[in-house]
C-alpha cells in the first residue's frame, strides 16, 4: 500500500533513498529529504506491507508527474513492488501523465512494458 511520507519515517526513507545512484552522500540525502518535506510539488510515498519496503518520490506539475526516485529494499526486489508503486501512482493521479527522470528511466520503461 502506498502511503504519504511523514517525518517519523525519515530514517527509513533516507535508507531507501541511499540505494539510488545519485543519493550516496549523506549531505545530498539530507537535502533531498528536506526538499520533499518543504516543497509542495515534491511528494514522497512509501510502500508499506508489514514494514516499509519501498519508496517513490515525484515532482508534480500541471500535466505531469516526474518520478525522481524509486527504490525497493534489496531483500524485497524482484517481487513486483516497484511496478505496484508505479501502478498506485497512476491510480492516485489518473488525470496526469507519469514520466521518469534520467535516473528512473530504465526501470520505468521496464515497468511500462510489463504493465501494458
TrEMBL record:
Coiled coil: none annotated. It comes from the Bacteria. InterPro entries: Acyl_CoA_acyltransferase, GNAT_dom. Keywords: Acyltransferase, Transferase. Residues 3-116 form the N-acetyltransferase domain. Pfam families: Acetyltransf_1. This is Riboflavin biosynthesis RibT protein. It comes from Rossellomorea pakistanensis. The lineage of its organism: Bacteria, Bacillati, Bacillota, Bacilli, Bacillales.
